[in-house]
What does this fold into?
Amino acid sequence: MLVDFAAAGGLHDCEQIVHADDSRFIERLGETGMHKKRLEQFRLNFSSPVFLAAAQQLKRDAAEAARITYEIHAVERGQWTHYYHCSDDGTRLSFRWEKPFAHACPTCGKVYTGEPYDAAWTSIVHVEIGKAVAQLGLLYIANPEREILQWIKIKLTTYADHYETYAIHGDIPYNGPGRLFAQTLDEAHWITDLALGFAVIQEHLTQKEARHIRQGLLEPCARFLIAYKEEQIHNHAVLITSAIGMLGILLENEEIILAGLDGAYGLLDQLNRGILEDGLWYEGNVQYHFYAFQSLLHFAMVAEGTPWDIWPNPAVKAMFDYPPHLLLPSGAMPTLNDTGPHSHIGTYAPNYEIAYAIYGDELYRNYLLTAYALTGAVKAKAWATRDSMYALMYGQNLSSGQNAEGSVDLIAEMQTTQSFIGSGLTKMANNDGWHVLIKHSRFGGEHDHMDRLGLSIVCGETPLLIDPGTTAYGIPTHYGWFKHTLAHNTVSIAGKDQPPRDGELIQLRTEPWGDWVESAVDWCGDDYRMKGRIILPEELKSWSQEAYEGVRIRRISLLADTHLLDVVEVQVPSLREVILANHFSGMLVDDEGWETTTVAIGERDQQWLKEKRRLAGRNGNLLFAMAEGYLQQLSWCSETSEVISALTPDNPPSTSRTSLFERVMASDRVWFVQALRYDRNELIAEGILTVECEADRVWRISVDLPDGKALYRLDWRGEKAALTRIQV
It folds into this structure.
């Protein structure tokens, strides 16, 4: 299935969408700063048995928040919270209110002291206070106790007392500075939470209190954010401009509103130029998609019912529409680029409470039913509990709309093979639980991993060959290993990083004997979709344009019932070292034929490649013990090749996976063929892969396995490959 929302009347790159109009003025302000129907919905849901879990969770969060006794000082200086992680295993350090100068790793027990940890602790303090203001503000809607209001007042007025005295500081890579925090982004996060709390309680403040908070905190922060807006299309810019717009509405200041919404790199420009045709945020993964979305949603809460209401903007709905289609059969979201592992359908369920309330789309209702295991299916898995703040604010009756027109079976959707043309991702699934993801995406900027045509494979919930994503940015493994081509299941030239370039889907075919996809990328030019819209810091330009100039790569991945067949063609204009990497989430079963080597693989620091071994001769049949079961790799190469194995960082980086690097010196074309077979229970020993050249770029490929033989004919002479299965 090809998914092209643009062709179906969705977003187009050049389409101008819903801009602010200088001639319109604010009509609904001065009451609560949030639409009255949302506050009434919150009160009703808070007392409803349907949302009991959400009400109880908010009470617990609010009770925890009310215990915060930290006194906000005239001098506060936060640091980047990505530093608040163990440098050995990547685990986030344990935050303890009573231990501002001792920060323990809960995994290995190591205790960190001094900077940057103490100042990162300070940042976390203010993040927690910001969240507490928002949580207690919402609780006050349903439970208007004087103590709650007083707690919020004290925090907001104390920040207003001191905010302009905080020194501008911060040297975080590729980020503007902060006042309270070390980067503009964190300042925007924090003020958004405070603004949400202010929005719901401001009618209960005296005029003097409200004026002091506006003049001492909201407006100075808005002016600061305006001064450090990013001049690029970027998730940071979405958060910063959303915060500016939100503050402008609460300040009833049209100048500030327009500074956030309008003009080059304003919020509306971010939506217009940063969202791909099918609705995915251009940075190429769902985690950053929703990260950019979060503050936008908070802006929308305050803007609803004003001339700045953003819900009618088609880009907003498109951002809700995309993620459900990308869900893998396991319910997980793919791990791509700078994203952490373990996000799934339940992770983003709270956002779909908002989506269903605003748009009433059956897709969103079914997303929620599936996430909460309310579909009525036997043994349905619950990925989340309906206990979020957004469920209280926006939650609807999910039993209505049963069998409604346009209803979507999300479980079936998760198990459906489909390509996403705009975002450049193809997922394939079969009846045996395999799901395969091929990345032929657009270049995603600063958070890209330079891994066009990367491959990820999972069976059920067992990872086989996957993209590990990344860890906290302050951990050396992030910049040292995870962000580089060699760390992914794709091709590199001499182990160097791929330069920016957009991949291409050639075709997706569904046959009686399996689904297969053909994708391609080349470096016969240097253009890409986001060129000129984003800033690429010099420190991140680790690629080699010279090494890849004129290189073309094509990949065919076929998912049959019993195996995956993968064929890679690399064309180089002159003598180059071509490396195909495969990173197995398991360990080699048999050590026979391997000998220790010190050979360098690529130009990355070799500390990331441990226990390097060279395969003496070429054994095209390797077996790996996975977390569950066994994976067999049968492989072949058209040229004489060398295979090096190493243990490389997995995620978390305290764990390892087995990486194979097949190296070839090529001067024209080289072909790599591999067949993968997985068994959850038995040790696989037998299997033969045979590849014969029938004519120039025409191959007969035989995969002979214990459960049957498959024979294929691949003709790669045309613009599109012709792949057929021959009856044996």
Observations:
- The chain is about 30% helix and 20% strand.
- The two ends are 29 Å apart (CA to CA).
